[in-house]
TrEMBL record:
It comes from the Bacteria. This is Oxidoreductase, short chain dehydrogenase/reductase family. The keyword Oxidoreductase applies. It holds the Pfam family adh_short_C2. It comes from Limimaricola hongkongensis DSM 17492. Belongs to the short-chain dehydrogenases/reductases (SDR) family. One of its GO terms (molecular function) is oxidoreductase activity.
Amino acid sequence: MTGPEAIHPDLKEASVFVTGGASGIGAALVEGFLRQGARVAFFDRADAAETVEAMEARIGNRPLFIQGDVTDTPALMAAIDTAATTHGPVTVLVSNAANDTRYDAQDLTEAEWDSCLDVNLKPYFFAAQKVAPMMEATGGGAIVNMSSGSYLMGVARLAPYVASNAAIMGLTRSLAREWGGRGIRINAVAPGWVMTERQKELWATPEAQERHRAQQCLPELMQAEDLVGGVLFLASKASRMVTSQMLVIDAGVSVTG
């Protein structure tokens, strides 16, 4: 069971853009920002019309849903422009869209490799590049890149996904150094194995869940809502001197430092 969210007054009315917000971790993040009173836009290839209605009914704050594919860079750029026109210049970007399809490394094709990086890495850079001038013009902003604990653990059958998430941390550190003088903070979050519907449908068998639970320091399996507090912290001025860092939220599976 997740606890109550801290309130971050500076996120109220903030213009927030989330990629991959229709389901799973992304939907939990969208809802978390809505509960802060933020103006939230999210971009996803799935039809999220019902999700939008449900969120507004629960929270009383309606997100702006823009449908499209993050591998279509012009569409992603246009979506960010739409969000800025509707809600004001984007001052919080959460790059979350990802595809963790499993592959046997020996059989992986070039097309499959390229497809994986097109989802899991390229949009992270171009979304950041797009919002950076908006953030600078408004006095600064925060970018949170969703990486993955899989790269810390070197999980098998996920070679291009793990490579992408290692690269996300490298990208985070490089941009944080380059854009810090513009008032832009950039951090990453590395979730552990979160029991989303996709995971439970495809890979999280009862046996697999119990094996993973045994690796955690904390006994509860992680839910999407467990990522919200950390992301809100990194997006808010509560973390105003935190940049170029990775926040690992995995119930204690990996060891860092």
